[in-house]
Amino acid sequence: MVGILRYLRGYLRIKVWGFSPERFMNLCSNRDILLWDIVREGDAYYMCISLGSFYKLRSIVKKTGTRAAILQRYGLPFFIPTLKRRKVFLLGAFLAAAFWMWSSLYIWDIDLTGNYQITEDAFSEFLQQEDIRIGMRRSALNIEELEKEIRRRFPQVTWTSAMLSGTRLKINLKENDAPIAVEEKQESGGTNLVAQYGGTIVSMIVRSGVPKVAIGDVVEEGTVLVEGILPVYNDDATVREYQEVPSDADIVLEHTRTQTFTLPLEHVEKEYTGRTRSRFFLRVGEKECRMPMERPFLVYDSVIRQSRPSLFEKLSIPVFWGKDTYREYQNVEYRYSREEAESLLGEKLTAFLSTLEEKGVQIIEKDVRIDTSGGEWELSGEFLVREPVGKSVAATIPDVGEKETDE
Questions:
Q1: Any residues with CB less than 8 A from the CB of 398 and at least 6 apart, and which?
Q2: Of 23, 175, 226, 263, whose CB neighbour count within 10 A is largest?
């Protein structure tokens, strides 16, 4: 604080020498003239004194037989006169201040947090439909209406908060962690469970419906496993009617699955030549300006590096600059060795088996072979598995009259 006051009032760095500099400083102290940063070099003293106190030194200098010379001037009283000669600087400072004041009236950045189910693209599309964009005036934004519209448009959002922080619009969401209940369509009639593939029944627990097969039976694809039609008999053991029920059962079928994975004998890899070319760009908001450049190489890829000045980042103004680097490469053909082919096909096989296990499929035995066939590597495997079976299909009620006539 003392330093700020000294700067506003102005102060001097002076040199004092002559007959009695020590007496000079004593008299200054007696008359409440403050001196600081005093340094002695030989017979001379260097010190700082306020601008107002300097004008009181004439009598002291005359009485002590010393001399005082100004070495440097500091403070606002000396800075303002120099500005009058720097009209371009003053104009630039005025325009900069006007620019910051003008830019503070607009929204230059939109920050979204808390979104896990809602993608950035989906939310950006929503903002465009609501005419909320970078560069809009802050006064045109209705925070309460925006929060209501977010909750209305996205049912999974349970809480939202929007606020303006400088030129940045901050939107914070909280989504419902529990899955949204979806009403399943109830089948109006009875349903049968049929086999999607052939095999041997190894486990069967029926909760609803009439079982049509038993453990140990060998069934084919399309066989009815559980029927959703229950007969109701008369006293004379004839069928009076049929009742429809949705079949429900846990049935495990043992069967053999086959799977084949292929890999070409040869593949193409990028081999960089080491030649690069670059060009700079400037992006403001959605508009971008790049240095003109012809096609740099016949075959190439590019790396984009962009940075944002810290000043514009703090002000949330979307100004970026960066550089595109183009790297030349050649496509070179390589042939997979057996070890490489086994490794890559093994990764595919592992992913396939993991998918089966996630579906509740139990793998009993497996027989895997790798060979070359038709100009490619081929992995073929046979897997003895036990997996759930039973596809729900609509049941057809037989005609009671026709049934009795047939009997």
A1: 229, 242
A2: 226
